[in-house]
Design goal:
The complex is a heterotrimer. The longest helix of chain A has 35 residues, at 185-219. Helices cover 73% and strands 3% of the residues of chain A. Chain A has helices spanning 2-9, 19-34, 40-67, 96-126, 132-152, 156-174, 185-219, 224-227, 231-235, 239-256, 265-269, 274-283, 288-295, 297-302, 306-326, 331-352, 355-387, 395-398, 421-424, 426-440, 446-461, 463-488, 495-498, 505-520, 533-546, 557-579, 590-595, 597-603, 608-631, 633-640, 644-661, 664-684, 691-711, and strands at 73-83, 86-94. Chain A is mainly α. A two-stranded antiparallel ribbon of chain B has the order 1-2. Chain B is mostly helical. The chains are: A mainly alpha, B mainly alpha, C mainly alpha.
């Protein structure tokens, strides 16, 4: 290799690595400063080429790494803070693991940016807000920059900075259409989804922060270089500590990578524009948790039993989400739960210690799930364009349909409105099929190899998890079969689907590239003799960190054949239900008829949101109310001013009666938003405005403090 | 026992401010109406001269007036901070006071007196001087709060601040009385000698110390002595609020640190549980109630309460001198971070405020980020800094503080601090969302001085983060001589 | 000679009366007087201690406190007058527009 030789002698390619963060930042700054007057084409080109350049730099890092014999290289960048012997440097870490992530993020990111230039052109027109085009690409470039900080940092602190940064971008992009006309359900729903993502991620961040604190507290450093070479010796000494660290870290993973119990935000997050779903909520950001576990492999390896904890969470999520995906009608919701389920596969894999399998699935999943989301976006756009051509009025939209759903608009994402689309949008159809086959895990396709490797590792070490994952894989093939039959086959069930239009080339080209990768991407870890290139490649980093050789199991027909047969069986069943007799307009889903309450459970996400509401929100509200009533300052106020017993008695009775009068039941329905508002109002009731109450508060403090000092 | 010119020279910055302000009262009285604006320029000039003197004095260690005042790194750090704040506060007030029709020179003169009081607080080493300095700092603040004559809210704010402030002042005074009764001295160094020699009635001493803590806790707005804060912040003219948010905190913490580090280190075991409770309450109440606020001034008021809680955290490693040194340095750093961020955010509030209290609701900020991106980004930076997200100085402040507290072994409180600051992200970022994501048509009042303050604070919030290492070194060096 | 503890007790009683006056009275001027009572009870404490120690600094402090109290009176009465002009009341509970 000429280039790699050049690196060893002349120019140091590693020194380019900070550009993976700064090129997207430059891109967004250019759009921010000059973009106001530019047309959409230029904005799109600037944003996409910034990410493409980032990809080029990532490839150069790959070459540099080859030249460096796969040895990790740390590029110091700046020193943030240094206090005494404590330093907070920002260093870039170039090793096989981080370069893998860089390539995925920037590669898939480039394709999605290109796709988005086309998609958003339509989307901003449907939402009638042309200015948002620039805003969208600024956020997207910011996301790429943050994601690069996350994967390239050489310490948990930088990882956390990126972690928070991508969270912020995700939050901004989920709520991208937040400012829609508030009287449509659309706008409100997005705001709510954003809030939900925010809350779930806050819980996860808390976990990560605690893990970081504990790590720092016990090992006095957060830097990977300092932490990992001699880590095992440190760690195995104190199993309880490892349990705490990994437990908190798992909470962080559950938040970011949408695992049980915090997965609820991800499906709602699909309210954002579709390229966002593809890039952030399928291919890259949500896999940060998997990356975190892989990066922290030495900690997770340090104590027996930690693995089973992580793997259980992953496998349970994989199965749970797969069952929910079966019961969804919204094309993106199916994919969303599928993503949660596939993330479960990855977490289960890295949890079992099969880091290569997990990362491998991360990469192939990035290809085919991005493809599926982009394909779904193309489908939705096609239907939307059929329903509501950009030229012409909006009569359709404002016309009241009938009494019960008079303010419900036509839903271009509902699969029950689709059907027969394969003839209208053949390009989208064919690429979508490639992604579907990859996700189902049919042989040759990328997903087959990676999923097979996970199953193989599971079978060898954790048979229970193996069976759980097999069932999940079966369901995966089934819900994807159902989706394909519903969307592309049969006859159009809505006028919009009859006149759907194929998407422009800017959208189709990324689909084609991703389809190619979804078909052939799995060969990077060819599991036979002379293969396992990807495994060896990652091994350089993971083996160095853990100090153990990676175990690479040989290909096992006993896993591959049953899995393939099960997938085929699932497709067959889905054909029996949906393919043989295509759904008619307005007809009930046959599965709904057959399964009855089970389907209802699936469709309603097994009532997880409602359960959370019951278990967490309701007691919280009650507690808040209780405190407010008992601590109400007015009681003190009146008491002190000789209004006397009568008032107190009334207050007391009111306190007893209020929970019944005010309707506890009403409060349950009010949900998260009003909970915050209520508890706020309750608390600020203490601020009565009466000076003497304030003086009383001071006096109260004095009495308590002096009382404590004297009578303690 | 004679006072010499050396004493005057040692506290030169304070002397300059006091003398200047006194002279300015006369000058102001004789200025014709047309030339009243000169007062403003003279105020700024006086503050700049004092600031130069304070910077010039940096590094000097001296006593003045028989040990009643001390000049050291600590006092010079705080003098520079408060003088700088004073200049910013004048810049914020100029256009505002004119706009609302109470453009009178006394405002600036009162502020100068208050600054002088704060400066004295930072170098006072005698309980008598501390009390006098406290009143010198507070009484002008009462007047500034009520400065918008004829406005019901402003008068109410002044009244509330005054009555409650005087009430709390009574507690401080009584506490000083007890300390005097227990030790027979008012000078901090004599007090500490007396304590080390054994005290007849330790309860007197303890009660006295607790009462002083309570009174100063009122000044810095610690829960449950905080209740004046939101009302006074809301009712006062916004530039006055901006000044008192920083000024009263700087003064209160200056005295708290000086008294408790120098005079009462032996009481740590008794006082730490009380401090623990105060901090926990302050953090929880400040951050929780802030969520419920719809008025930005009230929200920032509760936010400032919560920041007082964060700074108070620094007092916990009180018995452990080695850790306490770095935690007090962290507190100073945090004060600086808070001051800069706070002035910037109040600048944004002033830019949007309309007469009769319009333009103060959170909803009035909808669309700000779209219509005035620069202002929106500045406010975003301030909110990030308040939350403690890099790359802002607020992050460095929180980081150093939590680090110090954890070194002191107060994990529970550190966790509470982290949790509540995560909580605070909710209301700070909500404002950001309103600014950038909701559509609206806010109109700002253009005022170049306010713009200047906002812009420079925004830049400083980020840039000072980059140089937080030398800044913290400065703070560390400032507290070196205290112990 | 009256023992020191009597002075301390008297001062504590006066202080408590002052504090309770602030908490219970509605007339702003009486509240204000109650605060003055608190300050003066502290003065009593200083004088009593100073006398028992034979030390003048406590007695000097009292003069300072009186000066401060006078300054507070000036500001306080001005504020009360200003509020009265606007609201035509000196009932402190009427001054409660700011809350929440």
């Amino acid at each position: 290799m000429l280039l790699s030789e050049a690196t060893t002698t002349g120019f140091d390619l590693f020194s380019l690595v900070p550009w993976i963060v700064f090129i997207p930042v430059i891109g967004l700054l250019v759009n921010l400063i000059f973009g106001r007057k530019w047309n959409e084409r230029i904005i799109g080109i600037v944003a996409s080429s910034a990410v493409a350049l980032t990809f080029v730099v990532s490839v150069l890092q790959l070459i540099a790494l080859q030249g460096n014999h796969h040895e990790a290289h740390v590029v110091p960048f700046v020193d943030w803070l240094s206090i005494g012997q404590f330093h907070l440097p920002w260093e870039f870490r170039v090793d096989t693991l981080s370069v893998t992530m860089m390539l995925v993020v920037s590669g898939v990111g480039t394709l999605i940016h290109i796709y988005a230039t086309g998609y958003m052109w339509f989307d901003v027109r449907y939402k009638e807000d042309l200015k948002s085009y620039r805003r969208f690409f600024i956020y997207m470039n910011l996301f790429i920059a943050m994601m690069m900080i996350l994967v390239s940092g050489n310490s948990y602190l930088m990882l956390f900075v990126g972690w928070e940064g991508v969270g912020l971008c995700s939050f901004l992009l989920i709520g991208f259409w937040f400012d829609r006309n508030p009287d449509t359900t659309f706008g409100d729903k997005n705001a709510f989804a954003g809030k939900k993502a925010f809350v779930a991620n806050r819980v996860g961040d808390f976990g990560f922060l605690m893990a970081m604190f504990l790590t720092f507290w016990n090992f006095k450093t957060l830097s990977f270089t300092e932490l990992f070479p001699d880590a095992v010796a440190h760690y195995s000494g104190d199993p309880a500590l490892i349990w705490w660290i990994t437990g908190f870290m798992l909470l962080g993973v559950a938040g970011k990578s949408a695992q049980i119990p915090l997965f609820v935000w991800l499906p709602d997050a699909m309210a954002g524009p579709t390229p966002v779903s593809a890039l952030i909520h399928a291919a890259t950001m949500v896999t940060a948790g998997v990356y975190l576990v892989t990066r922290s492999a030495p900690i997770f390896n340090a104590v027996e039993g930690v693995h089973i904890m992580v793997a259980t969470v992953g496998a349970a999520t994989a199965l749970f989400a797969a069952t929910i995906a079966v019961g969804q009608h919204d094309i993106k919701k199916v994919l969303a739960y599928s993503t949660v389920s596939q993330l479960g596969f990855m977490v289960a894999a890295v949890g079992m210690g099969a880091y290569v399998a997990g990362m491998f699935h991360l990469v192939t999943h990035a290809f085919f799930k991005a493809l599926l989301f982009l394909g779904a976006g193309s489908v939705i756009l096609a239907v939307e364009r059929g329903h509501h051509p950009l030229i012409g009025g909006h009569e359709d939209e404002h016309e009241p349909h009938d009494d019960e759903d008079h303010h419900e608009l036509f839903d271009p994402q509902d699969m029950r409105n689709m059907g027969g689309l394969r003839k209208r949008i053949p390009w989208t159809y064919w690429t979508y099929m490639m992604g579907t086959f990859a996700l189902m895990g049919l042989p040759i396709f990328a997903g087959f190899w990676s999923k097979d490797e996970i199953l193989l590792d599971a079978k060898l070490e954790y048979p229970v998890i193996y069976w759980v994952l097999v069932v999940a894989a079966f369901l995966t093939a089934f819900y994807m079969g159902r989706q394909v039959w519903l969307v592309f086959f049969g006859k159009p069930r809505h006028h919009a689907s009859e006149v759907a239009k194929e998407s422009p080339w800017s959208m189709l080209v990324p689909l084609l590239v991703l389809a190619f990768l979804s078909v052939f991407g799995g060969f990077m870890n060819w599991p036979f003799e002379g293969g396992h290139q990807f495994g060896h490649w990652l091994g350089y980093t993971i083996e160095k960190a853990t100090g153990h050789a990676l175990h690479v199991p040989a290909f096992d027909w006993g896993v591959a054949i049953p899995a393939t047969l099960l997938a085929l069986l699932a497709i067959g069943i889905s054909w029996l239900i949906y393919g043989r007799n295509p759904l008619k307009t307005g007809q009930q889903d046959p599965l709904e008829k057959a399964l009855g309450p089970i389907f209802k459970g699936m469709h309603n996400k097994w009532y997880v949101d409602e359960i959370y509401d019951f278990l967490i929100l309701r007691p919280y509200q009650k507690l808040a109310k209780f405190f407010a009533e008992t601590l109400d300052w007015n009681i003190w106020h009146d008491w002190f001013h000789e209004k006397g017993i009568r008032d107190n008695f009334q207050k007391f009775t009111r306190f007893l009666a209020d929970p019944i009068d005010l309707g506890v039941i009403d409060r349950i329905a009010n949900g998260l938003a009003s909970t915050v508002k209520n508890s706020g109002e309750i608390l600020s009731r203490l601020q009565t405005g009466f000076i003497r109450n304030y003086a009383l508060s001071v006096f109260f403090g004095v009495v308590v403090i002096l009382g404590y000092l004297i009578f303690r | 026992m004679l006072y010499s010119m050396d004493d005057m020279f040692n506290i030169l910055p304070t002397v300059i401010v006091v003398a200047w302000a006194t002279a300015l009262i006369l000058v102001e009285a004789f200025l014709p109406k047309k030339y009243k604006f000169i007062t403003i320029w003279l105020t700024v000039l006086g503050l700049v001269v004092a600031l130069v003197a304070a910077i010039n004095q940096h590094g000097i260690e001296a006593e003045a007036f028989n040990g009643m005042l001390v000049v050291d790194g600590f006092s010079s750090f705080l003098n520079i901070l408060i003088l700088g704040s004073g200049i910013l506060a004048v810049a914020l007030a100029v256009g505002y006071n004119k706009r609302f029709g109470f453009d009178r020179g006394e405002y600036y003169i009162m502020m100068m007196f208050s600054i002088a009081g704060t400066m004295l607080m930072s170098s006072a080493a005698d309980l008598i001087v501390i009390f006098l300095a406290l009143e010198l700092m507070s009484i002008p603040l009462y007047i500034m709060a009520a400065f918008y004559r004829g406005n019901v809210n402003s008068e109410e704010a002044g009244m509330k601040y005054f009555l409650l402030g005087a009430f709390a002042g009574g507690f401080i005074l009584y506490g000083i009385g007890f300390v005097y009764g227990a030790t027979g001295a008012t000078g901090l160094s004599q007090v500490v000698t007396a304590i080390n020699g054994g005290v007849d009635s330790p309860t007197f001493l303890l009660v006295g110390a607790a009462l002083i803590l309570i009174g100063l806790g009122f000044k810095v707005a610690a829960v449950p002595f905080h209740m004046w804060t939101p009302d006074v912040y809301e009712g006062s003219p916004t530039p006055a609020t901006a000044y008192m948010a920083v000024g009263a905190k700087v003064g209160g913490f200056a005295a708290l640190i000086r008294i408790f580090v120098v005079a009462f280190p032996t009481l740590s075991t008794d006082l730490v549980p009380i401090l623990w409770g105060l901090v926990a309450l302050t953090l929880v109440v400040g951050n929780l109630v802030a969520i419920a606020q719809k008025n930005i001034k009230r929200m920032l008021a509760y936010s400032s309460i919560s920041h007082a809680g964060f700074i108070l955290m620094a007092f916990l490693p009180y018995g452990d001198a080695a850790v306490f040194k770095s935690s007090v340095a962290a507190a100073l750093f945090y004060l600086l971070a808070f001051a800069i961020t706070s002035f910037g955010s109040w600048g944004v509030v002033i830019a949007l405020e309309k007469s009769e209290g319009k333009g103060l609701l959170l909803e009035d900020y909808a669309g700000l980020g779209r219509k005035y991106p620069a202002l929106g980004v500045a406010m975003l930076i301030f909110m990030l800094s308040f939350t403690g997200i890099p790359p802002t100085i607020g992050f460095a402040g929180k980081f150093l503080l939590f680090k110090a507290v954890m070194e002191g072994g107060y994990y529970g409180l550190a966790i509470l601090g982290v949790l509540t600051s995560l909580f605070s992200a909710y209301y700070y970022l909500r404002l950001v969302i309103i600014m950038f994501m909701k559509s609206g048509e806010p109109n700002i009042v253009s005022d170049r001085w306010v713009t200047l303050v906002t812009a420079s604070s925004a830049v400083a919030t980020v840039v000072l983060f980059m140089v937080s290492t030398p800044l913290f070194a400065w703070a560390e060096q400032a507290v070196l001589k205290l112990f | 000679m009256v023992p020191l503890s009597y002075y301390v007790a008297l001062s504590a009683i006066l202080f408590a009366l002052g504090a309770l006056g602030v908490l219970t009275r509605r007339n702003t001027i009486i509240i204000f007087m109650s605060i003055e009572l608190m300050l003066n009870s502290a003065n009593l404490l200083f004088v009593a201690f100073a006398r028992s120690f034979g030390d003048v600094s406590g007695q000097i402090f009292v003069f300072f406190v009186m000066a401060v109290a006078a300054a507070e009176v000036a500001v306080g009465l001005a504020l009360i007058v200003a509020v009265f002009r606007n609201k035509h009341t000196i009932n402190i509970d009427e001054v409660s527009g700011l809350k929440g």
